[in-house]
């Protein structure tokens, strides 16, 4: 049983599309954070084309997969949506998700996903 106000984030990765030459890697496993704090989840990737999309999802204990935020490779500006902020580093093939003002509802497995533009018609 967890401590009151303690959040748990488990990190996982997934690659979208029928061509599996792309790769995403998340080296963090489980992170414990208190409510109201900030957490950053890291993801490294390998893409096969100039245009690709990076997505973050979360899967709470209920099992549903919830889309959070995405980044387009051709967009130089980092995406922000509510409590979610992306730090996209195309030169180093990495993207991190920062979640601010954490709440108990943020306890979940978090997935970084990559979709290569060449998969878009599949």
Structure characterization notes:
The strands form 2 sheets. Strands 3-1-10-5-6 form a 5-stranded mixed β-sheet, with no helix packed on it. Strands 2-4-9-8-7 form a 5-stranded antiparallel β-sheet, with no helix packed on it. The protein has 122 residues and is mostly beta strands. A hairpin with a 2-residue loop joins strand 7 and strand 8. It has a single domain, classed as Immunoglobulins (Immunoglobulin-like, Sandwich), CATH 2.60.40.10. The chain starts with 5 loop residues before the first strand and ends in a 6-residue tail after the last strand. It is globular, with a radius of gyration of 15 Å. The protein has strands at residues 6-15, 23-25, 30-34, 39-46, 52-59, 66-72, 80-81, 84-89, 94-99, 108-116.
The proportion of strand residues reads over 45%
CATH superfamily: Immunoglobulins
Gross morphology:
globular
Poorly predicted sequence stretches spanning 5 or more consecutive residues: 13-20
Beginning-to-end CA distance, first to last residue: 44 Å
- Number of structurally distinct domains: 1
Chain-averaged pLDDT:
83
Topology-level CATH name: Immunoglobulin-like
Q: Given the helix and strand composition, which structural class is it?
A: mainly beta
**H-E string:** EEEEEEEEEE
Percent of residues in helical segments? Answer: under 10%
| CA gyration radius, whole angstroms | 15 Å
Main beta sheet: strand number and arrangement? 5 strands, mixed
Largest sheet, order of strands side by side? 3-1-10-5-6
Helical stretch count?
0
Tell me the number of strands: 10
Tell me the CATH architecture.
Answer: Sandwich
* Highest-level CATH class: Mainly Beta
